[in-house]
Structures are given as structure tokens and as C-alpha cells.
UniProtKB/TrEMBL annotation:
SUPFAM superfamilies: lambda repressor-like DNA-binding domains (SSF47413), Periplasmic binding protein-like I (SSF53822). SMART domains: HTH_LACI (SM00354). Pfam families: LacI (PF00356), Peripla_BP_3 (PF13377). InterPro entries: HTH_LacI, LacI/GalR-like_sensor, Lambda_DNA-bd_dom_sf, Peripla_BP_I. The keyword Cell membrane does not apply. Keywords: DNA-binding, Transcription, Transcription regulation. PANTHER family: LACI-RELATED TRANSCRIPTIONAL REPRESSOR, TRANSCRIPTIONAL REGULATOR. Residues 15-69 form the HTH lacI-type domain. This is GntR family transcriptional regulator.
Length: 340
């Protein structure tokens, strides 16, 4: 027996750029140009190339093509979670808008610790993305150093500061807290329970609420922090804990709509009517908030607009276009519904 036989000899060969060129009846250089720089190639030629790509099963090496153009067409998008709807609309909008500009999204979930964010972002940068979207403005010093050394455009989202790493699209969580506090003080309520998720942005909203509520003498405020991610289960347990410890409340302020939905369910299970016996407010105007019974009063932020703005700011900067505003505050609105 011949023991020198090449074990890879009978393995199917991956299609090459030359295979595509033969199938399309074009030169390899034209095929490469159509795949890596389609703006300089006629639409009819691009169609021939793409038909050949599909027929041969060729997978373009975007990284190899990017070595010449210094672009990979990848945008890394870093969010803490997608297991509730808080970030889903923004992520979808980023992906849709990037696709229109000819880029691909590489999505990573990092949780709520700066250590995890730093580790994952450092790994992402080895893929040489053309740009990056980061959630929030609070990052470790190691991450900031890595980002600056990478020298790529960065957009931070879902927060507000006049001094971002590079660019920013977001809103003020502190101002949202203030708006909620003023809304309830105008109704002459005095007893407030707060159910707050443990992430930093939720805590900022909570502190903004408390700052306003404490401005009125005699206000009773009880707040509890529940573990992330915020969901209906912890919303129910949060209200249960508040009621068992302090009995009566005029309003329950939740740092997400999912917590508010859970609080409403727990209130009804205990024979409390919302809003007659207890007002409940949430945050983010998630897709179920208007259809809940009772419909949830909440703070609305334009999650789609955040994604669209972030994607276009990145693409503009990558392509050498001027970015008119490096910090965009999209604001927010209070949506009053049945629950409060």
C-alpha cells in the first residue's frame, strides 16, 4: 500500500477568483474590481460577476480585498444584550442602514461589565473593522487606549456627553429621570417606589428621578435594584418586595417597560388596580407598551433614528465625508397612557 498518499487529494477544491472569471468570461482583474470596488465597474459587468459567483459558489475574501483598499467593509457593533427589546430596533436600524452603504455589521454582545467589553472589543479589532459602534460612554481606560490606537471611526450610542471618544448619538438619562420626577410631582403624589435595573444608565435615570422627588418635603421614596437583564419576572418580584416592606405607594417608577409590565402583573395578582390604586411608568416605549392592558405610560426614545444616524456618521467618516455634528442629542418624549 502507498502510505504517501495526500489525505487532502480527494477533498473538494474551493472555487477561486479564476473560476469566477472563467464562468463570467472576464479577466480575474475585472472580477476583482467588481467585487472590491463596484463603483468603477459597469452595472452589466457586476451582474455577470455576481451570476458567476452564485454559480461557482465562490466566497469572496473581503479581508484580502481590504488589504489593498485598507477597508474590510465590516462595522463592529457592541451592545450589552439583546435578550429584551431595548436595543433590538437600534441594532436592526444600524444593520439596514449599513447595508445600504455597502457595509456589513459584526454584532457582539458584551454584557454590562467593562472588563468583558474591553476583552471582546480588543478581539474584534483583530478583524480590522472599518468602524465601531459602542453602547454607552463609560469604558475602561484600557478600552479607550485600544480604540485610540486602532485609529478607526467610533460612534457611542444610548448616552450623552459633550466629550465622546469620537462621535455620539444619544440622549440624557439624567434629564429623563428629571422629567419623570416632575410629572409625578405635578400630580401631588407623595409615596414612590422605584424598581431599577443594575446597569449604569438605569441607575442614572433613577438618581435623576430621586433628585426631583426629594425637592418636595414629605415625599416618601423607596427604591430597589434588581438584577440585569430587566424582565417581567424581576419586575414582579421587585413590586412584591416593595409592597411587602412598605405597603402603600402612589406610583411605581420602573427603569424599563419590561419591569413595568411585570409590576403591573404583580399588582393585579395582589388585587391592586392600575392605575386606580397604583400608577406605573416604564422606559423605552418598547413595541408591546402601547398594547399592554393597561397601556404603559413610558419615555419614548427614537431607537431607529439612533441606529440610522450612527451608521451614516460612521460611513461618512470612513469615506472621507465631513460629519457636520459629532454629537447628536435625539431627545426623548413622555408618552402618557393608561397606567399612569
Amino acid at each position: 500500500m502507498n502510505n504517501d498518499r495526500n489525505p487532502d487529494k480527494n477533498q473538494p477544491r474551493s472555487p477561486t477568483l479564476e473560476d469566477v472569471a472563467r464562468a463570467a468570461g472576464l479577466s480575474p482583474m475585472t472580477v476583482s474590481r467588481a467585487l472590491n470596488n463596484p463603483k468603477v465597474v459597469r452595472p452589466g459587468t457586476i451582474s455577470r460577476v455576481m451570476e458567476a459567483v452564485n454559480s461557482t459558489g465562490y466566497i469572496p475574501n473581503m479581508l484580502a480585498g481590504g488589504l489593498a483598499t485598507k477597508r474590510t467593509k465590516l462595522i463592529a457593533v457592541v451592545v450589552p444584550q439583546i435578550n429584551n427589546n431595548m436595543f433590538v430596533d437600534t441594532v436592526q436600524a444600524i444593520g439596514d442602514e449599513l447595508a445600504l452603504r455597502g457595509y456589513h455589521m459584526l454584532l457582539c454582545i458584551v454584557g454590562y461589565t467593562t472588563e468583558s467589553e474591553t476583552e471582546i472589543v480588543s478581539t474584534l479589532l483583530t478583524r480590522r473593522p472599518d468602524g465601531m459602534v459602542l453602547t454607552g460612554i463609560h469604558h475602561s481606560s484600557d478600552l479607550k487606549r485600544v480604540i485610540l490606537n486602532a485609529n478607526i471611526p467610533v460612534v457611542e450610542i444610548w448616552d450623552m456627553t459633550p466629550t465622546p471618544l469620537d462621535m455620539l448619538v444619544g440622549f440624557s438619562h439624567e434629564k429623563i429621570g428629571h422629567a419623570i420626577g416632575h410629572y409625578f410631582l405635578e400630580q401631588d403624589f407623595t409615596r414612590f417606589g422605584l424598581i431599577c435595573a443594575s446597569d449604569r444608565r438605569a441607575q442614572v435615570r433613577k438618581n435623576g428621578v430621586i433628585d426631583v422627588l426629594r425637592s418636595r418635603p414629605g415625599s416618601f421614596i423607596r427604591d430597589i435594584t434588581v438584577t440585569a437583564p430587566a424582565n417581567m419576572e424581576v419586575g414582579r418580584s421587585g413590586l412584591s418586595q416593595l409592597i411587602e416592606e412598605d405597603k402603600a405607594f402612589d406610583a411605581i417608577i420602573c427603569t424599563s417597560d419590561t419591569l413595568a409590565q411585570g409590576a403591573i402583573m404583580e399588582a393585579e395578582a395582589r388585587g391592586l388596580r392600575v392605575p386606580q390604586d397604583l400608577k406605573v411608568i416604564g422606559f423605552a416605549d418598547l413595541n408591546f407598551a402601547a398594547h399592554n392592558r393597561p397601556a404603559i405610560t413610558t419615555i419614548c426614545v427614537d431607537k431607529v433614528k439612533i441606529g440610522q444616524q450612527a451608521a451614516n456618521m460612521l460611513a461618512d467618516k470612513i469615506e472621507g465625508h465631513e460629519v457636520a455634528e459629532s454629537v447628536i442629542d435625539i431627545g426623548f418624549s413622555l408618552i402618557v397612557r393608561e397606567s399612569a
